[in-house]
Amino acid sequence: MQLKLENVQCGYGNKKIIEAISFTVESGEFLCLLGPNGVGKTTLFKTILRLLKLQSGRILIDGENIAKWTQQEFAKKVGYVPQAHASSFAFRVLDVVAMGRAAHLGIWGSPSKMDLEIAEEAIDTLSIGYLKNSIYTEISGGERQLVLIARALAQKPEFLIMDEPTSNLDYGNQIRVMDYIATMIKKSGLGVIMTTHSPNHALQYGSKVAAISRNGQFYIGEPRDVITASYLKETYHVQIEILQSVLQDGTQATICVPLAKQDFWSKITKE
Amino acid sequence: MKLTRSSGDSIKITVLLLSLLSLFFISFMVGRYPIAPNMVLEILTAKVMHVAPYWPTNIEIIMFKIRLPRIISAILVGAALSTAGAAYQGMFKNPMVSPSILGVTAGASFGAALAILLAWSTLGIQFSAYAFGLLAVMLTYGIATWVGKRGDAVLMMILAGIIIGTLFSSFVSLTKFVADPENTLPAITYWLLGSLASTNADAVYFAAIPIIGGIVVLTLLRWNLNVISFGDEEARALGVNTIKLRFLVILSATLITSAAVSISGIIGMVGLVVPHLSRMLIGPNYKVLLPVSTIMGAVFLLLVDDFARILFSVEVPLGILTSLIGAPFFIYLLYKTRKGWA
């Protein structure tokens, strides 16, 4: 399976925010999308998810233009994991996950026994069976994020789009959620596009990295080739050093470490 | 776990249905002219099987010409308001929403007030109320879709509803202002208070069609209300056609609320309190919440109407009574559920 963007241009109304972006994601690939605030990552996501109108270009799934697909057909192929949020109502976790079946049920439908089994399977994939009967509004932010991933899995898509799944999480939960996502990709063979603000997550987990710089420049490639000290400096106006290290378990790791310096502040005030 | 849970749900629903049934019988007995329980049962049986009547015919008239339409309208109006309220609370992802949010009640009130001013018949008043209720929501929907093309559709809907509601409320005031203070003004005021005292059978059966139809459609759509309560974009990303869903929900809720208001006038709090009460009883999953709200609304209004009939020698308008009961009860609910919407 292949999700392909060809010369995609998007924005709100007539306003152009992102132009001429092309990339492909294959099954089993983990594409991390990096970029500063306000550069249009969310706009791009909303356009891929068809919540915003595509201004120009094409989006193809296995070579087929999705422009004419219904939202229901599209949702069977592409799932969406929003940032963990509270719900207005105290749903049970299993019921939240079962909502992932909506695309398969249609407007008049409701989950059958089989749909609930699929939901439970998705819950098991993320090893959160203990949450099944908990109340969604009463669990922690990290758990909620996992529940939303499980919901997207219950959708049985080929691709997943994740919007900063670690943004509201504490340090431990960030690592836990990233591990879950990486394991899930290996288990399920899904193609995943994820936005993140953490270059380290992209370096450690991504199989590919796409980066949008402040001036709208678009880079894509191997994590280590895209996330360079110069890219980070140009994009975030901070000094970064990229280190290579061999961890205790023998794996090779690339990490970036910020060098906080006084001239960083002077640069900010100058702008 | 799952099994005990769903069987617990069915016990609760059965108990609710049984209380509705018993309340149905009790409602024939109570009132200014009490009828003994065994007589109610015998007269009802006589309708199905042939039993030689030994009771005076006026009892039958009271039961079938006066009490039955009133019982049916209490059931219909209660079910209508709380089903619409429950559906709107999910769709607007806000537990504080009532069925009148899009201006239907204000529109219907103006329709009724205008018809009373023009001295139309009872059915004419009902029809006018119904038509203006629909008109108000059409205006709200139209404005929201026109203005809200690139904004938050749901927010636009609520804002447009507030504006249209206020507009029609001013029209009601204007009608009252020009009405004859001797007879027309009291008639308008009394209508607006909300009551089932003057329901006639034809009016009820006329309103029953849209109410039952709307409830059936909402019941068929109910599971998707769960999904849309997570917000429009998320529901769309999950594959729900939210424009179609929202349209169908608003259409059905408006048809039933407008029909309910047209036979009863304004009956407050039912559409707000009963869905809450149901949520406390059975949880927020619309698969069971919506039917429970429907039944509970019927039980609630039938019960309150019985009290309206027997409490004082002069009948208290039902709308006043529901608010008197509903307001403190709602404060209690807020207190109980302040941690989240259980």
Description:
The complex is a heterodimer of chains A (271) and B (342). Chain A has 271 residues and is of the alpha/beta class. Chain A has one domain: P-loop containing nucleotide triphosphate hydrolases (Rossmann fold, 3-Layer(aba) Sandwich). Chain A contains eleven helices and twelve strands. In chain A, the strands form three sheets. In chain A, strands 6-7-8-3-9-10 form a six-stranded mixed sheet, with helices on both faces. A four-stranded antiparallel sheet of chain A has the order 2-1-4-5. The longest helix of chain A has 18 residues, at 171-188. Chain A is globular, with a radius of gyration of 19 Å. In chain B, helix 3 (57-91) packs antiparallel against helix 10 and helix 4 packs parallel to helix 10 (242-264). The longest helix of chain B is centred in the first third of the chain and has 35 residues, at 57-91. Chain B is globular and about 70 Å long. The chains are: A alpha/beta (271), B mainly alpha (342). The interface between A and B is large, with 40 and 37 residues.
